[in-house]
Amino acid sequence: MKLNSLIQKILDRARSPGIGKQKTIAPPVLGEALRYPYGPFRFRFLVPPGVECAVFSSTDLGTWTPIGETTAPEGPTEYVDSEAFKFSWRFYRVCCQEVWSANVIGYVSVSLPPGFSLLANPFQTECLINHLFKDWPDGTTLHRFDTSLFRLVENEVKDGLWTNPSHKLAHGEGIIFYNPTFDYRWASFVGEVAQGPLLVPIPSGFSIRSSPVPKAGNLEDLGFPIAEGDVIHVFDREGQKYLIYPYKDGKWPDGQPTLSVGEAFWVAKTVPGNWTRSLII
Questions:
Q1: Strands of 115-120's sheet in order across
Q2: What residues does 157 pair with on adjacent strands?
Q3: Domains defined along the chain, listed by start
Q4: Which residues are CB-contacts of 1 (< 8 A; sequence separation ≥ 6)?
Q5: Above 80 in pLDDT, residue 14?
Q6: Which of 56, 130, 209, 234 could potentially form a cystine with 165 if both were Cys, beta carbons 3.0 to 4.6 Å apart?
């Protein structure tokens, strides 16, 4: 069913004599999100029993496609997307009785080959390291770059435990992750999409940064404040090497870097700037 026709169907039901007498509901808040390894994605929300809701999904936060309908039971409504395994990232919102959900949630799954990867938390929700990277073997490490001290800060798995298990990966925070095994593994970020005016400060010198909005694309389309003399270092996980993109004479002589959702990169900035975006869904 097309998006417009499904929305019209919900509106018609809400205006019908039987349903129209229902009290106005508050915007539902999506939560209790869980991505099952290599499988479905589940979330819950609470609306009065009997209210009909449509579930919408998107991969770019711009185009929303209806993927299901549900009628609220007594207690929390649970929705399971069994098609989630087909997507590396997907975002969700619901519409119940003409009222859109107050927030947007989703997941981003990142492939971690043997060796190094540069990752970032794409969601507003903070991630505990010992939850995000659970059951990793000894020798697993991650490093974040402290721009005030100009040095890498290490966290490592020893005797089956992270040396700093309380480390929370904040929205947009980039890390260098090391997979010591010979196997490809996955990290699944789950949380709420940050909305409104968003800002990532870019200091002069080196820093690890990522897009404030969970979208894929080239740096200029993502609104990065590029300036003459800046150099971007993107890490090729498959080739285990850095790809260097200098910005000279107002252009990218070696092509413009393109980033995936949840991917961090090194910035060598000539002058400080602010990476600003505004996202209203």
A1: 115-120, 174-179, 141-146, 151-158, 161-162
A2: 162
A3: 3-103 (2.60.40), 109-279 (no CATH)
A4: 9, 66
A5: no
A6: 130
